[in-house]
Amino acid sequence: MPVRVTADDVAKAAGVSRAMVSRAFTPGASVAVRKREHVLRVAQALGYRPNLIARGLTGQRTGLVAVVAGEISRPYEAWLLEHIVRVLSANGYQPLLLPAFRDANMTEMIDHALAYQVEGAIVAAGSVSRDIADRCQASGAPLVLIGRVLEKNGADAVCCDNIKGMWQLVERLVKQGRRRIAWLGGTADTFSDQERRQGVEEALAHYGLSLQVQRRGDFSLSSGVSEGLALLDSRLALDAIMCANDAMALGVVEAAAQRGIKVPDDVAITGFDDVPGAAWGRCPLTTVRNPVNETALEALRLLETRVHNPTCDNQVIRVGVTLVPRSSA
């Protein structure tokens, strides 16, 4: 079994002190250029990599950023995670991924991340409590939420304009003459589901309409199929089904195909997020684009701002959304 190369091994081979090895791997440390290059060459030849956890224990920068993501088997979560990791890596950070499965204890996950001496945490999960924000702030680790806004003075956050997006979809449906509209929401405790349902109800009320029926899935494609079948079999003569995300909307499209119902002739179907798969399949999806790259960039900007100014006021960034009309509505 190979023996792990240590900083002492590098120091001995390079003919320098162990402290010099540490400085050579520390950005901004006072080391002559030739000396640093020499140490790094020796380290590379030996296969040495610095222990980031040990660096954190000595108070040095680790470059680690905890990324708490939702269930990454789902299209939007995987798509967002890809952009977060890409943005962090491009800016010299190493993401420490912590997947937040449905039954995960978010508080324990954040505590676990903080034990690694991370420089901050980006939480891309829809259900985060004030207690979690307080834990991060008490530890000195900045916390940035994606897709969730806590009440006043909760945490820095980036979130799309959910309500505006739903207004755009309702306006399109109403202009098409749709009047018997159903809502398929996601899990009840998620911020995006709450705001998107609010946007639908407000927009419909503006036009003197209301939802004919509401059902709830779990943001997955399979729940879109099962709940879509229930809606289509309900004898409510629905002419539109609005879904809280694209995965469920694609599931409803599949449910309509199973029942021989034409989309959009018999019923219009809309989603939200504009994940890559929304533009493909048997019926390209009318949806709202949730700009994930802009979201990832803003999250990193908020994180770095908090690192450099820990006492600054919390910021909430609302990124813009865009209606993407396609065949389904």
Automatic annotation (TrEMBL):
Coiled-coil spans in chain = none
Keyword DNA-binding listed? The answer is yes
Question: Which UniProt keyword terms apply here?
Answer: DNA-binding, Transcription, Transcription regulation
Annotated signal sequence range = none
Q: Which GO terms describe its molecular function?
A: DNA binding
Q: Which SUPFAM superfamilies does the record cross-reference, listed alphabetically?
A: lambda repressor-like DNA-binding domains (SSF47413), Periplasmic binding protein-like I (SSF53822)
CDD domains tied to this protein: HTH_LacI, PBP1_LacI-like
Domain HTH lacI-type positions: 5-59
Its name, as the record gives it, is LacI family DNA-binding transcriptional regulator
- Please name the taxonomic classification of the source: Bacteria, Pseudomonadati, Pseudomonadota, Gammaproteobacteria, Oceanospirillales
